[in-house]
Every structure is written in structure tokens, then in C-alpha cells.
Specification:
about 180 residues; alpha+beta; four-stranded antiparallel beta sheet; 6 helices; about 35% helix; about 15% strand
Length: about 180
Amino acid sequence: MTEKEIIEIAMKAGFDHAVFMDVEDLKFDGSLRKYCEENLCGNYGKNHACPPDCGTPREMEEKVRKYSRGLVMQTIQTVDNVMDNGEIRKVRKRHNDMSRDFLKAMKESGQEGLPVMAGPCTVCTVCTREEGKPCRFPEEQSSCLSAYCIQADKMASSCGFTYWCGENKVAFFSLYCI
């Protein structure tokens, strides 16, 4: 499958922008893990795809570096209040639903890759991690940009994407490494 065909599938899934970049150009910063450890999203230690279960910053970077190209997909969505966590969760879910549609199309086409999402894995309503059980769908599990310690602002800049969208807009990103 060509990069152009993959981009077309991403755009059909509803993304506002989709561009390939070299994985070697991604910037990682292990110090970003502290934001996961602060548990502001409430998923630290409660989701198989989140720290500490997903791996160390170094292990996460090594997973991505096994690939040569990455498709960066972006949505820009209007919100009433960027500080309203409920509203942000709702628009992030919309972004991740598009990402899951894209991943389904990739799987159906036989294209294999590494998905990196926006926010915690939400394949299951309640992660089995909270019950001390293994992941029910490890092949569908995906960690977020934060868990990978990818500098999203630098990734966006490399792609020519807007990172800060203003007062009433929020950008979300997914990455698909091939």
C-alpha cells in the first residue's frame, strides 16, 4: 500500500490533516513521563496501555524506532471551554474513534503498523488492569503520545500542523508507524 493510499484512508476516516514523516525526526523526551506519573488523567496504573505498565520511556521509544515512517493525523475541533475536562474528553473520543476507524481499515487492507493515540486506550469500557487481569484485546491496545514521551508540539511543527489552535479550538494527534 502506498503512502498516498494510506493518507486517503485517513482523510476518509475524517481527519483534518494527515502527513507522513520520518520516524527518525520524532523527538522524545523521557522527562515528559512525569505528567503521566502526576496522574492528571486518572489512568496511571489503571490501564494496560498507560505507565507504568506500557514500558519505560526508553522502551517506548525503542518500539517506535523500529519503524521508518509515521503518518501523523490531526483533528482540530471547536470547544466552548478548553479547560472543561468533560468537553475535552468528548472531542478526544471523537478523534480516537476516527483513529480506530482508520486502524480497522489498515487491518482490513493487510497493512501492519504501530498505532499511537491521543489519550488512554479505550478499547474496553473498564480496563482489566483495574481487576488485575491481562488485557482482553492486546492486538487492539494502543498507548498515547504522552506514554511514548513524544514531543507532540515538535511533531506537529515538523508536519506543518498547528499545535496551539487558539481559545476555542483544540488539536489532537494520532501517529501510525509503518
